[in-house]
């Protein structure tokens, strides 16, 4: 779409009620790559009204009809994958290979996962011989998504909402809106009825707050910072709408004495992936003292040998962080860390040879204690903190000593220990020995990491109300 300033409302690309230009900055170059418009209350109201008007008919369409449209959307998504990869690479700085394989791939992976879960999903369930439990779409949903994994999060919200019969308004991040606008094109091309899917660009204090407090919005699904999640919850409280949150994290990667020899190397690589801009990144590496010096050296080598470069450059490197605001925040926290712990790789400033763009040196701190700022705050950059421990109990205590609880990691060849520690960790996900999660696995956290689950049947459940009906005659 050549005009990025338009919104998608009621099946049409429409101009904003008022022009409020907002530049989209390519983080690799710090240059403007597009201009969008930020919506205001009039735009929000129009999108909500369109979704509200479309809900009665869409909620009553057959499961087969909704699945067919989602299958068509998947075909379009796959056919236009390169366009999507280029959009995400430009708007948020993911290296083009990462954008093609993982950023775009995450979207198609989750669409397939939802279709698989939806195939055998029943909206009517027998409770007793005369009572039926009905699962019904909750209604109009506001979907507010972040910039770090744009398609991953847009797909995790829009597809289950569409499948369950909800209508929606998507507000993608204003920092990385190009992928969301392209996705709206895909939805339009797939032929969803007008008003079922709507998109309004805006910032959190504007359209985000308007959607969160809107009396005709039945649910808000938000992914982003814990601070913003708290604000959305407060805004939604007056209308008692459902709020599903996927928020920050400060994952602990526990490396026991019998872990794989490459565990520290793999943990550092995972921490730096996507330039550290993942809520589930293993940013605290907890290492048994018998393996500690080895792990510090290994992680430092990874950092020193991780190439940093432009998103347009082919290869397996890391790109810039998304914005000047994020760059400045990360630099300040690295500086704090240099006064708290032992810097073994990286540090402040851009990597050598890069004097423009929001590039951050992959950074490793050793001799970190869990009360330090760099161990407490979600830095959201390629920064790793390494903490020693002596006993299993100490490792679990350190891992759990955080306001977050999204993903923790356990590395040990002792199966009994691995399962025991996994049960004790207070997080929504525990990845062990590098084994990734299956398609449709529930993604979400404990504590200040949020309160919802996304993916597969769990993601479908998020968008449904439960109705009990007595006296249901036997069929």
From TrEMBL:
<protein>
    <recommendedName>
        <fullName>aldehyde dehydrogenase (NAD(+))</fullName>
        <ecNumber>1.2.1.3</ecNumber>
    </recommendedName>
</protein>
<comment type="similarity">
    <text>Belongs to the aldehyde dehydrogenase family.</text>
</comment>
<dbReference type="InterPro" id="IPR016162">
    <property type="entry name" value="Ald_DH_N"/>
</dbReference>
<dbReference type="InterPro" id="IPR016161">
    <property type="entry name" value="Ald_DH/histidinol_DH"/>
</dbReference>
<feature type="domain" description="Aldehyde dehydrogenase">
    <location>
        <begin position="13"/>
        <end position="469"/>
    </location>
</feature>
<dbReference type="InterPro" id="IPR016160">
    <property type="entry name" value="Ald_DH_CS_CYS"/>
</dbReference>
<keyword id="KW-0560">Oxidoreductase</keyword>
<dbReference type="InterPro" id="IPR015590">
    <property type="entry name" value="Aldehyde_DH_dom"/>
</dbReference>
<dbReference type="GO" id="GO:0004029">
    <property type="term" value="F:aldehyde dehydrogenase (NAD+) activity"/>
</dbReference>
<dbReference type="InterPro" id="IPR016163">
    <property type="entry name" value="Ald_DH_C"/>
</dbReference>
<dbReference type="Pfam" id="PF00171">
    <property type="entry name" value="Aldedh"/>
</dbReference>
